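About this split. The held-out portion is used to measure sequence recovery: a designer receives only the structure tokens and must propose an amino acid at every position. Recovery is the fraction of positions where the proposal matches the reference. Here is one held-out target exactly as it appears in the evaluation file.
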């Protein structure tokens, strides 16, 4: 638990004095603010103490700033391993050692947020050079957009910070509690299994893992599509294994893949692409170096790939390539065959264990043709075109969604719309959903984040229900279902949220899921999430979210974990149970 300095006994304080003297004091730097010392630069998201001192000789009040060292642990763990003291409180208790001869009259923690979202110059001829210049700007500039202060902060000190940081009172967030809780990850890493969720081991679908040896994924995909649902289904034995097998298969001629957030750890996907290039295969990686706050690691990964002989494309000027697509071209006895993956999440093994995402593995010729043309448009020059199966942004995806909404609206109460996404912002889509509701079409929306639609407004959105599922896993998949009959309804999955930035300023792709068994699995997934009443919030007509009361006790994450285990076990016992 958190402990305050004021609540500690003498032995506890003695321990913290030792910690301060040996580990903290040597790295602290007090910075005075006066006519000879201008107000210091406050770095983005750094934690600081605003200190007020009194000169006993002149009785003059002075201001100083002490930065809490970011390289030190955010919380000091007490010897019992049960209590944690915020580092800024340990520093505050020893400020007299930083300002000897002065009287410490007050101290308050504060933190600033700087605008780190810089626009790229579309006229820049070198996209990589432009991104690197943005990274340099982010490290040393960006105007302050928010000031977080402790609830006890004196009004005069707050006014001084507002003035020096060139803010208005509206830019101030008052927090009654510790600032900067990112350090809680260090507490989460403690070896206290009784305080954590039971470990979850993603399952390997039977079709991808029968027997003691790994299956031939190309042979599997010749006969059937496979839907993977992370983290319930293993990323490493599905998508990562597919790329790894492609990298080693002598019959594979080419691998083309988009990479949006490559991750800071060693990536098995990147390793496979490097191996494939070194083996002489045609390997193309479209690395989106404009992925916000992952630019640096993406640049590093891109250079690693280039050095191995991979053809690296650094995204498109004016557009972000957000789509999650993979194309493998293989030479077989019947000729060239294309194997595909279209997903909702990044090709990142770490987030695949934390984020809920979907992916379709298929050798459907139409999807293969579509991905070939989409990759050609991303790496070369081509005019926007109409695809066979995919809905692609920024040309066609919004219209495709709107056409389907309007078709269900024409059916009135006999229609049905279910949409699962991270955000719903696009005005044109919202208006279409309102019109469908006015015609009597039942509409369920699962929106994890921002939602600009108001449900339940008489005469406007009576038939619309909006829910948000917040639990053990971060809901990240996008599913769009049109039709009242689960057996004949159309299901699409992909990377696009319904926001202007996704529909107009990003390359996105949705793919239809056509296999009956896979459509049934998507219907089951949506039914379970809509039935959840243990971790779900509902949006009301006023735009406020309310936690739903628990009546039936359905925990969607728990149900889906149990079903993943049961499906894997049943299919291994009897392959006829395997519904992929």
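Reference sequence for scoring:
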């Amino acid at each position: 638990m958190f402990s305050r300095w004021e609540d500690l006994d003498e032995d506890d304080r003695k321990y913290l004095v030792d910690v301060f003297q040996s580990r903290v004091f040597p790295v602290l730097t007090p910075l005075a603010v006066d006519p000879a010392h201008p107000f210091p630069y406050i770095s983005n998201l750094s934690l600081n103490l605003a200190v007020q001192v009194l000169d006993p000789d002149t009785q003059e009040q002075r201001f100083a700033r002490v930065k809490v060292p970011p390289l030190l642990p955010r919380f000091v763990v007490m010897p019992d391993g049960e209590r944690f003291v915020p580092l800024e409180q340990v520093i505050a208790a020893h400020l007299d050692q930083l300002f000897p001869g002065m009287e410490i009259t007050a101290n308050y923690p504060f933190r600033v947020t700087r605008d780190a979202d810089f626009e790229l110059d579309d006229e820049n001829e070198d996209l990589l050079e432009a991104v690197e210049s943005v990274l340099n700007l982010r490290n040393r500039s960006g105007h302050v957009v928010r000031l977080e202060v402790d609830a006890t902060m004196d009004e005069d000190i707050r006014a001084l910070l507002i003035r020096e940081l060139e803010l208005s009172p509206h830019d101030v967030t008052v927090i009654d509690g510790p600032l900067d809780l990112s350090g809680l990850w260090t507490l989460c890493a403690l070896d206290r299994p009784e305080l954590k969720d039971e470990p979850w081991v993603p399952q390997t679908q039977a079709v991808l893992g029968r027997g003691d040896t790994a299956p031939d994924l190309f042979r599997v995909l010749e006969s059937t599509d496979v839907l993977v649902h992370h983290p319930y289904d293993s990323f490493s034995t599905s998508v990562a294994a597919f790329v790894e097998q492609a990298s080693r298969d002598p019959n594979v001629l080419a691998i083309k893949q988009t990479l949006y957030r490559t991750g800071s750890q060693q990536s098995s996907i990147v390793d496979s692409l490097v191996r494939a290039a070194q083996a002489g295969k045609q390997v193309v990686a479209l690395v989106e170096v404009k992925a916000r706050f992952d630019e640096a690691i993406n640049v590093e990964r891109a250079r690693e790939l280039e050095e191995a002989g991979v053809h690296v494309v650094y995204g498109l000027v004016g557009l972000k390539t957000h789509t999650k697509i993979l194309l493998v071209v293989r030479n077989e006895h019947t000729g060239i065959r294309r194997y595909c993956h279209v997903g909702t999440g990044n090709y990142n093994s770490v987030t695949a264990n934390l984020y809920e995402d979907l992916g379709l593995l298929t050798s459907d010729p139409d999807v293969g043709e579509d991905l070939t043309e989409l990759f050609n448009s991303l790496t070369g020059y081509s005019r926007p075109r109409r695809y066979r199966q995919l809905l692609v942004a920024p040309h066609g995806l919004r219209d495709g969604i709107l056409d389907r909404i309007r078709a269900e609206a024409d059916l009135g109460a006999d229609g049905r719309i279910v949409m699962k996404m991270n955000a719903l912002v696009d005005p044109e889509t919202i208006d279409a959903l309102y019109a469908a509701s006015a015609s009597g079409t039942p509409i369920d929306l699962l929106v994890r984040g921002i939602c600009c639609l108001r449900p339940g407004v008489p005469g406007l959105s009576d038939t619309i229900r909006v829910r948000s599922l917040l639990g053990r896993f971060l809901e990240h998949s996008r599913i769009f279902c049109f039709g009242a009959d689960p057996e004949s309804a159309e299901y699409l999955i992909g990377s696009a949220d319904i926001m202007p930035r996704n529909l107009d300023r990003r390359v996105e792709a949705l793919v239809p899921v056509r296999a009956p068994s896979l459509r049934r699995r998507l219907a089951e997934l949506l039914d379970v999430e809509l039935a959840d009443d243990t971790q779900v919030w509902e949006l009301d007509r006023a735009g406020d979210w309310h936690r739903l009361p628990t009546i039936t006790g359905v925990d969607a994450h728990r149900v889906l974990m149990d079903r993943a285990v049961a499906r894997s076990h049943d299919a291994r016992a009897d392959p006829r149970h395997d519904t992929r």
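Annotator remark: The longest strand covers residues 103-114.
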